[in-house]
Every structure is written in structure tokens, then in C-alpha cells.
UniProtKB/TrEMBL annotation:
Family: Belongs to the DONSON family.
Record flagged with keyword Iron: no
Annotated segments matching region Disordered: 1-82, 311-355
Gene Ontology biological process terms from the UniProt entry: nuclear DNA replication
Domain of life: Eukaryota
Lineage summary: Eukaryota, Metazoa, Chordata, Craniata, Vertebrata
Residue spans of biased composition, Low complexity class: 27-45, 72-82
Full protein name: DONS protein
Record keywords, A-Z: Developmental protein, Nucleus
GO cellular component, one term: nucleus
Length: 554
């Protein structure tokens, strides 16, 4: 038999059908067609497109009406950051609608991404000499200032080595309030290099080891020789357990202030006694699931759900206030008051007692729920918070050691399938530990021009990438304050699952008596991390220094 006739497999018609939805989705064409009156007479029939025609002989559609110019690509509140929304290269004076060079496009992309609707900050705080501790891990920070950041470029080999030495020896660097020539100040450049150092385990340069939550797409296609080799997985986990135990021993000895354990399912923040307003060591886990919490309970680990308990107490208080208000107004709406005051069924009604069925004489005709159903009904409110910030678990005191052993033997800590199968969790620490590898954050400076009222002004930016730990953010501000003459702005992009770590870790009345003089942090950074967290489950999105005073938005 010869080839199939053309009417059975018309490729041109298939291509036409594939392109047809794109045409119909044009908003300008749709609006124009709706506004224009329907043509009548034979001319309209002549202009009607033949549905069986090919792309070659199909009538061409008239050009659409010109579109208005695109809006500003800032993506955020224009009043929050008016001077960096339109950045142009410093060496050219071009109209704002012309094509931008690659370097300026990078700045625009950064500003647009960091000013997305999800990251719109709230009302700024009042100016203070210090900003609150932010225990979330930042993935990127964009510092912007009217003063150049050229002093942070091309460090000499001696300055880089001196910065590493100062970090390893925990040397405290004291800088003047203002540095007149930052590019010629060796102490400033060494302190900048010192603030970029962190420690990591395991060290696999070809894999992105942070963030681990939702990183399957980035790790797909990477070489993972341990995925099908159980012996290699056991070696990796044994080495990881040694490093994990080393970090915990340093933390109990108050030689390590804190460290993170980042797995594909959840992250854990261990803090030494004396930090975050707690007099005992603490460990925060987020996000969690009911299965993980049940496994921790079965191991005898005592923990609390501070955000969930706070939400329950707030709802109960609001319910009591509403009941008091309604009772004072009268007794006419008694039934509605009862409905409003009880948003969820009480757990006392599901205690497994069915004596009321026997009183009615129908105990044999009604199917009774089993014990598992009753238990699930009691815990339905707890299950609803799984994978949410409200599922944060807080472990205090000696229970952190039990948690250490639990995590080492926890099967859900390591993925069994997917790109992260067999890969141990990532350990992040501000100080050295056994098996840890020294890493540095990536920093680069960019110059541009910002469009303001009446013309343009020079704007300089410094982009920092990587897992930016809480101490690194504060250390960078201590360096940038003198270098930028007390004026800069910072756009922060946090790792969202870690924002819940800003929950209060101790009762308000708890007194802190622990001291951490040899933990490797700057004294001012240590003083900041000792304060009780005040950000709740949010994190700082915008940090601004003006006249050496901080304001921030969360």
C-alpha cells in the first residue's frame, strides 16, 4: 500500500490548531473584537477564515493595536524603595525604554525578585541602634548604597589569608565609625573576608547542598554514585554522624553558638544555652508532620508547639471576650453565642464513651467508630498544621541530647528515592568542627544608575549569595556601616521554611545566666543573638541604615 492520503494526517492543520489558542489568548485582540460591531452582509462571509485552509493560504490577521508601555519592573511597593526600581549602566545616558545591558538587567532582576508580592514588607520600625536577631537562613542579600563597593573587590592574597586567619582564631576587629578610604583600608577588607566564612558538611562541590527542601529539581541529573550503593551510603552516614556529634559536643561546651541540620523534609536549629533568651540548650524543628511528632513522642522526647499553642490561647481569649460582650448586650442571641464561642468540636465529646446509645436502646443498631478514628478526630487540628510554620517543634534542655540520638537513627532524615536519595543532611555552622569544610559566601559588586525625580543618581550594590547564617548578616552590617558612611539598604531573601525559627524559645520570665565568651563570634554579634526573638514566624525583608541607625521591615 502507498503512503497515507493527506486528509488522514494533515500536519499543517495540526500546527494550526496548536497555534490557535495562543491567538485567542491575546487580550488586546479579544478586547478589540468585543468592542467592534459584528460585520454583516456578504463581505463578512468573504473575510471568514476557512477552517480547512493551511497556514500558507490562511488570511493574515490585521496588526493589533499598539500596546501601552510596560509598567515598572520593580514588582513591589514603589514608595518602599523608589530609587532602585529603574537602574541603568553608569557609563551611558539612554532613554528608560531602550534595551539595558546585561549587568543592569541583573540588578533589575534582583530587585524584582526580592520585591515580589510575597516579600512586601510591613510598616517599618522606628530607628534603633541595633536590629533584632533573625534566625532564618538567607539565600541572598542585595546591599545598595550611594557610596561605591569597590573596596570589596579583588582582595589581595595577603588580605584573603588574613581574613581566614582572623576567622579561625576568632579575632575581634575594631573599625572606626567611618572609613574615609575604604579601598585602602586593609583592616576593613580583611574583616569583610572574615564575615563571609562558614563551615559545611558534607562537601560535594558539584551538588547544591542548600537549600535541601524542594531542591530535587536542582539536583536532578547530577552524579550521585551513592544512590544505588548501600555500602557507600553507610560510609557517608557514619561520617555524617561523627560530624553531627562533634557539633553537638561543641554546642554543649558553649564553644559553638548554634548550627543547622538541613534535610530534604525539615530543618533543625540547635542553639547553645544563653542564646535566644533561653538558659538551656534548645532545638527547633520546622516544618514537621504528625508522623514525625509521634515518632519523637515514642522515643520519650518532650517538646512543645509554641506557635500552635499561642494560636489556641489567642482564639480562646477572643472567644471569651466575645462571649462577655454578647452576654452584656442581652440573652436574645444565646444560640448564636454558643455557635460563635465553639469554633471546633470539643475533644471531651469523643472520649470513647457511648453510654448515651445504651440509654436510647440503639447500641446494637449503630456502628461505633473504632479507636483509630476517634484518635484521628482528636488530632485533626494538629494534623492540619503539617508542613506549615505552625508545626514548629521546640525541644529544650536534656531532651536535645535525646533528639540527637533520634535524628542519627531516624530513617526519614535521608530520602530513599529521588535525586537526594542516600545523601545525608547538610550541616551548617559558624565555627569549625570535625569533618567540616570551610566555605565562603559569594560576593560581587555592581554599579548602576537609578531614575529619580529630576534625573538620575548613581547607585552601587553588593550582592551576597549562599547560606547566609544569622551571625554573617550582623557581621556584614558591622563592616558596611563604616565603609558606606552609615547609610545603606539591604534587600533580604530568606529561606522560607527557616523563618519559623524566629519563634520565642523560652518563657518571658526566664533569666539567662549562661555566657559564651569563646564561641567564635564578635561580642556585638553575640549580644544580638542573646536577645529573645521578636519576629515570630516572619523574617526581616528590608534592612536600612541611615545615620548609623537601623530601621527594618518584616
Amino acid at each position: 500500500p502507498g503512503p497515507s492520503p493527506g486528509f488522514k494526517k494533515p500536519p499543517a492543520l495540526l500546527r494550526l490548531k496548536r497555534k490557535r489558542p495562543g491567538r485567542r489568548s491575546d487580550p488586546a485582540a479579544t478586547a478589540e473584537a468585543a468592542a467592534a460591531p459584528a460585520p454583516r452582509g456578504p463581505s463578512a462571509a468573504a473575510r471568514r477564515r476557512n477552517p480547512f485552509s493551511s497556514l500558507d493560504n490562511a488570511p493574515q490577521r490585521a496588526a493589533a493595536a499598539p500596546q501601552p508601555p510596560a509598567a515598572a519592573p520593580a514588582g513591589g511597593d514603589p514608595s518602599a524603595a523608589p530609587f532602585w526600581q529603574f537602574l541603568e549602566p553608569a557609563c551611558e545616558e539612554k532613554p528608560p525604554r531602550r534595551a539595558e545591558p546585561a549587568e543592569s538587567s541583573n540588578i533589575l532582576a534582583l530587585s524584582k525578585d526580592l520585591h515580589s508580592p510575597l516579600a512586601v514588607p510591613k510598616v517599618p520600625s522606628s530607628p534603633r541602634q541595633e536590629f533584632p536577631a533573625d534566625w532564618s537562613i538567607k539565600t541572598r542579600i542585595l546591599f545598595m548604597s550611594s557610596q561605591p563597593f569597590t573596596w570589596a573587590e579583588h582582595l589581595k592574597a595577603q588580605e584573603e589569608a588574613q581574613g581566614f586567619t582572623q576567622h579561625c582564631r576568632a579575632t575581634e576587629t575594631t573599625l572606626p565609625q567611618s572609613v574615609q578610604e575604604p579601598r585602602l583600608c586593609t583592616e576593613l577588607r580583611c574583616a569583610f573576608q572574615q564575615s563571609l566564612v562558614y563551615w559545611l558538611h558534607p562537601s560535594l562541590p558539584w551538588l547544591p547542598l542548600f537549600p535541601r527542601i524542594g531542591a530535587d529539581r536542582k539536583m536532578a541529573g547530577k552524579a550521585c554514585p551513592w544512590a544505588q550503593d548501600e555500602a557507600l551510603q553507610q560510609v557517608l552516614m557514619s561520617d555524617w554522624s561523627v560530624s553531627f556529634t562533634s557539633l553537638y559536643n561543641l554546642l554543649r561546651a558553649r564553644l559553638c553558638p548554634y548550627f543547622y541540620v538541613c534535610s530534604a523534609q525539615f530543618s533543625v536549629l540547635f542553639r547553645a544555652a544563653g542564646l535566644a533568651g533561653s538558659d538551656v540548650p534548645t532545638a527547633a524543628i520546622a516544618p514537621t508532620t504528625r508522623g514525625l511528632r509521634e515518632a519523637m513522642r515514642s522515643e520519650g522526647i518532650e517538646f512543645s508547639l509554641p506557635l500552635l499553642e499561642e494560636s489556641r490561647s489567642r482564639k480562646q481569649k477572643n472567644s471569651e471576650e466575645s462571649l462577655e460582650t454578647e452576654s452584656t448586650e442581652g440573652h436574645g442571641a444565646g444560640s448564636s453565642v454558643e455557635d460563635a464561642g465553639e469554633p471546633a468540636p470539643s475533644d471531651d465529646d469523643d472520649d470513647g464513651s457511648f453510654s448515651w446509645l445504651e440509654e436510647m436502646g440503639v447500641q446494637d443498631k449503630v456502628k461505633k467508630p473504632d479507636a483509630i478514628s476517634i484518635q484521628l478526630r482528636k488530632e485533626k487540628h494538629e494534623v492540619q498544621v503539617d508542613h506549615r510554620p505552625e508545626s514548629l517543634v521546640l525541644v529544650r534542655g536534656s531532651n536535645t541530647f535525646t533528639l540527637l540520638n533520634f535524628l542519627i537513627s531516624c530513617r526519614s532524615l535521608v530520602a530513599v528515592a529521588g535525586p537526594q536519595a542516600g545523601l545525608p543532611p547538610t550541616l551548617l555552622s559558624p565555627v569549625a568542627f570535625r569533618g567540616g569544610t570551610m566555605q565562603t559566601l559569594k560576593a560581587r559588586s555592581i554599579s548602576g544608575r537609578a531614575r529619580v525625580q529630576g534625573g538620575f543618581e548613581d547607585v552601587f550594590s553588593l550582592e551576597v549569595l549562599g547560606p547566609i547564617l544569622p551571625h554573617a548578616l550582623h557581621a556584614l552590617t558591622l563592616v558596611l556601616g563604616p565603609a558606606q558612611r552609615g547609610a545603606f539598604r539591604a534587600l533580604l531573601s530568606p529561606h522560607e521554611p527557616s523563618a519559623a525559627f524566629n519563634t520565642r524559645a523560652a518563657p518571658p520570665q526566664e533569666a539567662v545566666h549562661q555566657d559564651l565568651p569563646a564561641c567564635g563570634l564578635h561580642p556585638k554579634t553575640l549580644d544580638q543573638l542573646r536577645q529573645c526573638p521578636t519576629l515570630g514566624k516572619s523574617s526581616i525583608r528590608l534592612l536600612e541604615m541611615k545615620d548609623y541607625a537601623y530601621t527594618w521591615k518584616a
